[in-house]
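Quick one: structure for this chain?
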Amino acid sequence: MDCHTPETRSRNMSCVRGRDTGPERLVRSLLHRMGYRFRLQAKHLPGKPDLVLPRHRIAVFVHGCFWHQHSGCRKAARPTTRTEFWNKKLDGNMERDLRNRRLLVDLGWNVLVVWECETRDREQLAAKLKHAIESLSQAHTSARSQAA
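Got it. Here's what it folds into:
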């Protein structure tokens, strides 16, 4: 049984943001400090990536561990009430994420996923971003040069 009234639950859920979240703002700040330039919420791409680095052909998604079910993360625990609803909702999110990643790859984009729990340690996240972008960018550059 839910410990909140329907009105309280509705108010709580209305505060959950879909964009410009704390983790997303942190990732943007780190990337900008590292000198990378990006576009926000690319509506023309599948899944509307949170950030797009067009020069490197990299789409970045900043996922909440609960909403996108980060495997092995304690924040990804599924609710024990209304299990049918939550299983359908969360499984649908995961299927949509996979479908969007595949579509982006088919369009020639590299996809990078940053999980909410990874934003706790800024230095480690900055190192991960730098390494991932450099390696994905090199792969994109070498693929482009082979095609020419």
